[in-house]
Amino acid sequence: MSLTQILFFAGIALIAGIFRRPRLRLYVLFTASILAVFALQPVLPIRGLDFWLPTATLALVVFSWFATAPRSARSLRQNWSVLSVLAAVILILGATRYIDLNLPLPVSRPPQIVQILVALAALVLVGSLIARLPAWINSVLTAVLILFLIVLKSPVIAESVSTIFRSINRQSTELASALDIRWLGFSYVSFRIIHTIRDRQNGKLPDASLFEYVTYVVFFPALTAGPIHRIERFLEDLRNPTPINMDGMLIASQRFVIGLFKKFILADCLALIALNGTNALQVHQPGWMWLLLYAYAFQLFFDFSGYTDIAIGIGLLAGIRLPENFNHPYLKPNLTQFWNNWHMSLTQWFRAYFFNPLTRTLRKRGLSIPVIVLTTQVSTMLLIGFWHGVTWNYVLWGLWHGIGLFINNRWSDRTKVWMDTHITTRPQRIMSQICGIVLTFNFVALGWVFFALPDPQTSWHVFLTLFGVTLG
Amino acid sequence: MAEQSDVKPKEKINPIHVVFKALGLFIILNFLFTFLDPGSIGKLSLYNSILPGRSRLPFGENPAESYNLSLYNLNAMLASHEIAGAEKTEEEYRVVLIGDSSVWGTLLRPEETLAGQLNQMNLTCGDRRIVVYNLGYPTISLTKDLMLLDRIKAYEPDLIVWPVTLESFPWDKQLSSPLVANNRTAILELIEKYNLPLDPNDPELVTLSQFDKTIIGQRRNLADILRLQLYGFKWGATGIDQIYPESYEPAQVDFEEDITFHEYEPPTLQEKNLAFEMISAGIRAAGETPVLIINEPILISEGKNSDLRYNFFYPRWAYDQYRELMQEVSLAEGWNYIDLWNLVPAEEFTNSAIHLTPEGESLLATATGQSILERFCTP
After folding, report:
1. What share of chain B is helix, strand, coil (3-state, %, to 5)?
2. Closest-approach residue (CA) in chain B for A280
């Protein structure tokens, strides 16, 4: 998101926050959120795709609501107003093809209106069908979302899909690239939808109207970089708004400004120094390589936590409390605590929907604790790696952390008694804490080597340089 | 009776007051900032302390890849150069090179430039080791060279070597370099100090309004200074300060039937058409420090219409007359001048008629080193 877009959305949030009537505020947030889906979508070289992808986002959200909502609430008659607004927005944006107003959205020339009308008709048909299908449709939807994630996160598959789209559009297939299919916010949207589907299957999902559900999934402050908030708290804030007062505005603005400072000053400055695929092969001295790596570690933190602060700040202006995502992760004395405090909403999601169910399953099978810990930690971290991208480097990054967490778990288990009896004084505890922080930070920083670089060969070169090893 | 608390209730903060106070402070700071010399901020530098000094002045169009950038703040540029951190010892014979992109070293690594190659020759002047600094800058203008020469006196050079070429002499080139145009104050000082025949009100010289001097107005300058410091880390880590492409467009060798040079046509290029005054001013600016002026090597092409033109820059008639004029003026003024125009064969030029390959630079370094030893180091 550009600074201008951020400031614009902050203004919208402030307007929404001023409304005392929940319904009015919901309308503002709903409209802003669906428009944000189109406005924030990056321009893509494949004709029309930067219009179809946001449309598909909204369609998926509507489908998932029809699949998860109580059967009594699913009728088209009950939801015609929301569906009409959605269709109208899509049609109005599509109509900008024929009027040159130089508007910031849609981000490029939309497809022909006939194509849009046909697509909308098809979507209505699919939606009506989903509304009539039994509960198994939830599993199908989850599978579709996971399939989309795999396509988007695998450079090879994404490139093949781009080739297909390009040939349909009669564009040069030689220029096909994985970057042609950048689908704004899909990772976060899909995880929010899966959260609601799983909670529906477990009987925990609170009832939400289509208006509320769409606003929740594509809530504009959290659309591009999270956090992955939970629906029950969102609905609570949405239905019982506390109109923003001076104190609230001060807290929200403070958070917002801190976020801007972290993202646009600290992270963007560190980005000029940080390790990347190009400079990794240009540096041959360990000291400089460590400096570039540390710069990357802090750039990543300030960038991501800055965006979270901005999202939380804008959310607060609108009267919505988004969850915290970072809690001084680089100051944690062990890897487990690091992961409890880094991208917390993502790790909580994986804990709830993958780690805990898998642990329960393995326990039932009577496996030993170390085997369970190793299997669950490594598989969870591998999945988190795949969530960032299906590449060898993300596999290595996932393994690095999975094995690290396993070692940390076993070490804590074995040394707990010794630690409790031998580290008793305050200076000893402080020393132990400092050693833990330094060790954990450096372990995490070394893991970022895989995260920052495109392939294992370059990562290997960086590891050798970091430790002053020269081969051949 | 309830005990009274000494703790004062926390004062409520009114965000509107905060906004107004912040706005007020911002306006005051901007106003105060206008009293600062915009150039002086550049003196604050991480180079030569935390970061290694650069071996040539900052210049670059693609900072993300070259770890270098073009800026107009002379103080920041000089503060980032290794010469700013090099304390001169009694054993050092300090030579400073000024000039255009051929001196700066387009497409050459720092050690391949004229300065780099002269340093590798390990020359001595008497019992002092010759240490050469590259203060060339990639735009062609004698006024730009003069501006830099005037500033580098502070670094106590024992000799200034000034390679020049005809393209830097026409009057229309003098203020067109962005570095010159954006340093109006420095140019006005030079005009006054050396009575230069330049128009102080020339529209090419960028005049700063009062608003331009505020923090908002100076944001580009401030951002450039910050980026120069940040890219210094990459420079320090990699030693890279320009992009070295695997291939480039070689210098043009076939030409149209065009024999004009700037607005001049044959038969005569007059002394008044060329800015010899800038060289005179440079020699005066150098004071006691000798200046060696070199007519730098040019590409002598053998392609289409090469009977009319030596290269892209120069029709033969103009360049031949320039050489004659340089010779005459140098003799008359008593300048240390050597003409190396045809020293380098055509195959040792890269993407321009004045940019040399490392081998070409080596030829030039040998000839320059020899001249330095003969003219300035022989008792």
Report:
1. 45, 10, 45
2. B238
Query: What's the rounded Cα separation, in Å, for the pair B156 and B93?
Result: 10
pLDDT above 60 (res B84):
yes
ipTM score of the complex? 0.85
Q: Look up residue B94 and give its DSSP letter.
A: E
Query: Does the annotation count A461 as an active-site position?
Result: no
In this complex, do A283 and B65 lie within 8 Å of one another by their Cβ atoms?
Answer: no
Question: If 0-12 CB within 10 Å is exposed, 13-18 middle and 19+ buried, where does residue A352 land?
Answer: middle
For residue A32 the two structure tokens come to 């802003």
Residues of A with CB under 8 A from a CB of B: 246-247, 249-250, 253, 269, 272-273, 278-279, 282-283, 285, 288-289, 291-292, 295
Q: Report the candidate in B44, B56, B29 with the shortest Cα–Cα distance to residue B221.
A: B44
pLDDT of residue A73: 86
Instruction: Output the six-digit token pair for A238.
Output: 């949405």
Half-sphere exposure of B79 (CA within 13 A, CB side): 22
Pick A69 or A76 by higher pLDDT.
A69
pLDDT band at B94 (very low <50, low <70, confident <90, very high): very high
If you ran DSSP here, which 8-state letter would residue A21 be given?
A: S
Nearest CA in chain B to A266: B230
Q: What is the pLDDT of residues B22-73, one digit of tens each?
A: 999 999 999 999 988 877 888 899 999 999 999 999 999 899 999 999 999 9
Query: Tokens 């999270």 — which residue?
Result: A226
CA A360 to each of CA A88, A202, A364, A376: distance values in angstroms, whole numbers, following the listed order: 47, 15, 6, 10
* CB-CB neighbors (< 8 A) of B224 in chain A: none
Q: What angle do CA B271, B273, B276 make, to 5 degrees?
A: 60
CA A49, CA A154: separation in Å to the nearest integer?
A: 18
Sheet of strand B124-125: strand arrangement: B124-125, B128-134, B92-97, B159-164, B291-295, B336-339
Question: Is the pLDDT score of A184 beyond 80?
Answer: yes
CA atoms within 13 A on the CB side of A412: 14
Which of helix, strand or coil describes residue B90?
coil
Helix or strand (DSSP H, E) at B339: strand B336-339
Nearest by CB to residue A283, choosing from B63, B231, B238, is B238
Question: From B241, which residue of chain A is nearest by alpha-carbon distance?
Answer: A282
The whole-angstrom distance between residue A45's C-alpha and the CA centroid of its chain comes to 24
Would strands B336-339 and B291-295 be described as parallel, antiparallel, or unpaired? parallel
For chain B, domains (ranges, CATH) are 38-376 (3.40.50.1110)
In 10 A of CB B212, how many CB atoms? 15
Half-sphere exposure of A262 (CA within 13 A, CB side): 21
The pLDDT-based confidence of B367 (bands split at 50, 70, 90) is very high
Looking at the complex, report in whole angstroms how far the Cα of residue A171 sits from the nearest Cα belonging to chain B: 30
Sign of the four-CA dihedral A259, A261, A264, A270: negative
User: A391-449 pLDDT, tens per residue?
Assistant: 999 999 999 999 999 999 999 999 988 888 888 899 999 999 999 999 999 999 999 99
Token digits of residue B302: 């053998």
Give the number of other Cβ atoms within 10 Å of residue A238's Cβ: 24
B-chain residues near A282 (CB < 8 A): 237-238, 240
Q: Rounded distance, CA B265 to CA B151, Å? A: 36
Q: What phi, psi does A91 have (nearest 5°)?
A: -70, -40
CA torsion A364-A368-A370-A371 (nearest 10°) is -70
- Residue A198 phi/psi, 5° resolution? -65, -40
Q: Which residues contact A143 (CB under 8 A, 6 or more apart)?
A: none
* Set of chain B residues whose Cβ sits within 8 Å of the Cβ of A295: 233
Cβ of B14 within 8 Å of Cβ of A246? The answer is yes
Q: Which residue has the tokens 């910050």?
A: B226
Tell me the pTM. 0.90
